[in-house]
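Researcher: Structure for this, please.
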Amino acid sequence: MTGRSARVVVAGLGSEYRRDDGAGPLVAARAVVEAGSGSDIGPVTDPLDLLGTWDGADLAIVVDAVRSGLVPGTLRVLELTASGSGEPANLSGATSTHGIGLAGVLRLARAVGRAPSRVVVVGIEGEDFGRGLGLSPAVDAAVPAAVHRVVELISEVRACA
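Model: Predicted structure, token format:
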């Protein structure tokens, strides 16, 4: 990456109209503002929307509310890696509230040569995915830490460029 700026895409998955599902777009927007210029952002309702948005990026950060059984508000950071079969090994068995999961979209992007060099998921364990506006208290309390982590990731890749 020497001699050019790293291309960073921050995508917030989710819908603000599904309570905690709105955490992804909120964190992504705040992080890009805090990190300053040089990052693309996309509020993404469905993982398929990542195709075209993250093509060729040095780093794609996907922020999403997740359901994994942990305590609501728990922050998880997961770097997607490929197994020998090209599958994101650390997303096996993962489920998504979206039509096609992130693993499927990444697999497709890799197959057509349009995947980002690196993909990191910043997930906040959600509590309430019902209809309505506003985050649950636990998820709302986790937003600043998630923003901070996304900004750190952006800074790390910029420092290496």
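Researcher: Any notable elements?
Model: Residues 8-160 form a domain with the Rossmann fold fold (CATH 3.40.50.1450). The chain has one domain: 8-160.
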